[in-house]
Every structure is written in structure tokens, then in C-alpha cells.
Write a structure and sequence with these properties.
- With 114 residues, the protein is α+β, with helices and mostly antiparallel strands.
- The chain has three helices and four strands, in the order H-E-H-E-E-H-E.
- The chain has helices at residues 4-17, 37-49, 83-99, and strands spanning 26-34, 53-59, 71-79, 104-111.
- Helix 1 (4-17) packs across helix 3.
- It starts with a helix and ends with a strand.
Length: 114
């Protein structure tokens, strides 16, 4: 799980290393994983109802045929976060993944609005 302390460090780094105004909206990506596609497909409408945009649903490339399948769901939302609000969001998404039987909520990324 991503800790609040890790988020504080992330925000400090973004403030130092990027030109972004962290008080303005950014594009936040959130990622879920599962060993099969159908459970991820099933949660898409639920996430869309919460204002998320679906970016991709894909099977990760394997190094070996023997490796287990790993499906990824990438959703995005344009919003403003602080370390505390992002920590709350992550906790909610961990619960969401658990409640819907997904293997994992795998975390987030962030980018500027194009």
C-alpha cells in the first residue's frame, strides 16, 4: 500500500522537479489489475459513474508463456490533490478493488493537462 509519507515525498518532488502548479487540476491516472479481463470490465461502469474516464484495458506482455496473465485497467480523472486527499482517494480505491474482487489497486500516476 502507498503510504501518506510516500505521497508527501511525491508532492515535494513534483514541486521541485516539475513546472506544474499543484493547486490547479492535473490528470491523475489510477490502475487496477486482475488475472482475467471480465472482473475489470465489470467495474468499468461503476468507475465511470464516479467520473473516471477509461483509458485502457489490456493484457500485459509476458516475458514467458508460462507467466500468469495480468490484465490492467487504467482510468483517469482531472482533479486537484494534496497528499492528504490523494491518500484518501488511494484508500477508497484499495477498498473498491477489494469489494469488487479485483487482484489489486496498483496505484496512480500524474501528468499535466494537455
Amino acid at each position: 500500500m502507498i503510504t501518506r509519507e510516500q505521497l508527501v515525498e511525491m508532492f515535494d518532488n513534483m514541486a521541485k522537479e516539475t513546472p506544474w502548479d499543484l493547486r490547479k487540476p492535473l490528470v491523475w491516472g489510477y490502475f487496477f489489475t486482475h488475472s482475467t479481463r471480465p472482473p475489470l470490465e465489470a467495474v468499468v461502469p461503476l468507475l465511470q459513474d464516479q467520473g473516471y474516464r477509461v483509458i485502457a484495458l489490456y493484457l500485459e506482455e509476458k516475458d514467458s508463456r508460462k507467466d500468469p496473465d495480468l490484465w490492467w485497467l487504467h482510468v483517469e480523472k482531472t482533479e486537484v490533490h494534496t497528499p492528504d486527499s490523494l491518500h484518501e482517494r488511494n484508500q477508497a480505491l484499495y477498498r473498491f478493488a477489494d469489494e469488487h474482487g479485483l487482484d489489486a489497486y496498483d496505484g496512480m500516476d500524474v501528468g499535466a493537462i494537455d
